[in-house]
Write a structure and sequence with these properties.
Blueprint (H helix, E strand, L loop, with lengths): L5 E2 L2 E9 L3 E7 L5 E7 L1 H4 L2 H14 L10 E5 L6 E5 L6 H8 L4 H20 L12 E4 L2 E4 L5 H5 L9 E3 L6 H4 L7 H14 L10 H10 L12 H7 L10 H8 L31 H11 L14 H7 L7 E4 L5 E5 L7 E3 L4 E2 L4 E3 L6 E4 L6 E13 L8 E11 L2 H13 L6 E8 L8 E6 L2 E7 L3 E8 L5 H15 E3 L5
Antiparallel strand pairs: 1-2, 2-3, 3-4, 4-6, 5-6, 7-8, 9-11, 10-11, 12-22, 13-14, 14-16, 15-16, 16-17, 17-21, 18-19, 19-20, 20-21
């Protein structure tokens, strides 16, 4: 690809890379200074919203000084292709350094944390929020870390590419409020700083996997701090608090990261986001199975008292979330990921719990668990109504003495995730005996596959679609998963009803 000869007053020498905003070139001023010039992509250049936001952000970015940023030295928001020039900082990125040299020890992590806190303090003091702090945006220069790409993400957020409820940034470093498309403040950068320190220690705060997997864990699951030295875990845990109000400010972090400062748990005096509760305690290891169950229970639909709300172990849960990525469009770029969540589906089906199921094979047990429970909107679902009903077998159904129906109707972005949370809630107790591992079974006459497993003396089958997510427990356990799946299809036909047919 041909390089442009000049950008503004700068002579282009070579391409440095390309990303979400456009292409970055190494260039030289007429006085011989080297700069990094980032040029907007054509579709951004054609967007007046981007130009207006870019102009405002550049003006603010020019005021950012300090030792730990790559200072903006020039820009032209009105050029045919808007561009931004920053001082060129030689050195590897933090991600490159970690790949070459491995994790940092506690002393180096403290220096890195203090440097990044100073950089964020300088950025925030000019009214900017970075929004995409990550190892790839940090240059490890000879005189210390330098933060790149501040003042760009917000301009990109204003383009036609984004939509209501969208999140811009890099999953794994996105704060929960960013992942949910909510209003983002300076505390989001502190969250990212915490995730950067976990990465620099050799860990992954929210594991590995698809972007949607990482976003889900950031919102619902505790971070994995097992790689972080014990002396730094309380500080990093505070940075990664789910509630923005619980995170320290960069100024408070400087006191906590400075090498000559004793390690202490952040307090309201050290934090400037007005904490409403003490900072979280030190995390001594990877999230325990109990902690993961608690996280999953907060995301999973509430079920009846005979079920045990719980999450599966880490590997089991994390492998299940891959299908969720189908609900989002992921745009890759050097400035991060753009996660553009598709609109919620229409509500065309709902659940009912009739008096009998499967042509009279099961009748409702008036002494069993029976309720409906409206739920507030949350990440990935809207207009949700929980249902629970217990049925007993009649002479028509000798195979199953009891059928427990737990499920929800509403509108779901990631129904498979909701489905698997229900399966976990009905099967994971910590002492379970899985006699038939989970399989997805196709049944003639059904437009979805049924995910079924046998745990102890009960077989559970579940499905997830745009409007309904249901798990059905059969007691005693079925002779085969295929038999339980066939019975589930009959029950699904009875309880999943088109809304238009309701009186």
């Amino acid at each position: 690809m041909d390089l442009p000869e000049r950008i503004g007053d700068y002579t282009v020498e070579r391409e440095l890379g390309a990303g979400g905003m456009g292409t970055v070139y190494l260039a030289r001023s007429r006085g011989g200074r080297t700069v990094a010039v980032k040029v907007a992509r054509p579709e951004l250049a054609a967007d007046p919203h981007f130009r207006a936001r870019f102009r405002a952000e550049v003006e603010a970015a020019r005021r950012v000084g300090g030792f730990h940023t790559a200072q903006v030295v020039d820009a032209d928001p009105d050029a045919a292709a808007p561009w931004l020039a920053t001082a060129y900082i030689a050195g590897p990125t933090l991600s490159g350094l970690l790949a070459a040299e491995g994790p940092m020890d506690e002393a180096r992590l403290r220096l890195l944390g203090a440097a990044l806190a100073e950089a964020l303090q300088a950025i925030h003091s000019c009214g900017l929020i970075h929004r995409d702090l990550k190892p790839g945006n940090i240059i490890m220069a000879d005189d210390g870390p330098r933060v790149l790409d501040f003042g760009i993400a917000r301009a990109l957020e204003s383009t036609r590419l984004t939509s209501t409820g969208a999140a811009f940034g890099t999953p794994g470093f996105l704060a929960p409020e960013q992942a949910q498309g909510l209003e983002v403040g300076a505390a989001a950068d502190v969250f990212a700083l915490g995730a950067v320190l976990v990465a620099a220690a050799g860990g992954d705060a929210f594991g590995e996997g698809t972007p949607v997997m990482l976003m889900y864990r950031a919102v619902h699951e505790p971070p994995d701090l097992s790689a972080v030295p014990e002396g730094l875990r309380p500080v990093v845990a505070a940075c990664l608090a789910k509630d923005p109000a619980q995170r320290p400010t960069p100024k408070g972090l400087l006191d906590l990261f400075a090498p000559d400062t004793a390690v202490q748990t952040p307090t309201p005096d050290a934090a400037g986001y007005t904490p409403t509760m003490p900072a979280p305690p030190a995390v001594s290891a990877a999230p325990t199975q109990t902690a993961r169950r608690a996280a999953a229970a907060s995301a999973a639909p509430t079920v009846g008292p005979t079920a045990t709300p719980a999450a599966a172990p880490a590997g089991k849960r994390r492998g299940r979330l891959a299908a969720a990525v189908a609900g989002a469009l992921v745009v890759l770029g050097g400035a991060g990921y753009g996660i553009y969540v598709s609109s919620f589906p229409k509500a065309t089906y709902e659940l009912t719990t009739p008096d009998t199921l499967a042509a009279g094979a099961y009748r409702r047990d008036p002494e069993g668990t029976n309720f409906t429970d409206p739920q507030p909107d949350r990440w990935g679902q809207r207009d949700e109504l929980h249902h629970s009903a217990t049925y007993v077998g009649t002479g028509e159904a000798p195979e199953f003495q009891k059928v427990e129906v737990y499920g929800s109707s509403g509108r779901y972005l990631f129904p498979e995730l909701e489905r698997d949370a229900l399966i976990d809630a009905m099967t994971v107790s910590g002492n379970e005996n899985v006699s038939e591992p989970a399989r997805t079974i196709s049944v003639t006459g059904s437009d979805v596959g049924f995910r079924c497993t046998t745990v102890d003396q009960r077989t559970v089958c579940a499905w997830g679609d745009d409007n309904t997510t249901v798990a059905i427990g059969f007691t005693p356990a079925a002779d085969s998963l295929e038999l339980a799946a066939a019975e589930t299809r009959k029950i699904r036909d009875d309880i999943r009803t088109p809304i238009a047919q309701q009186p």
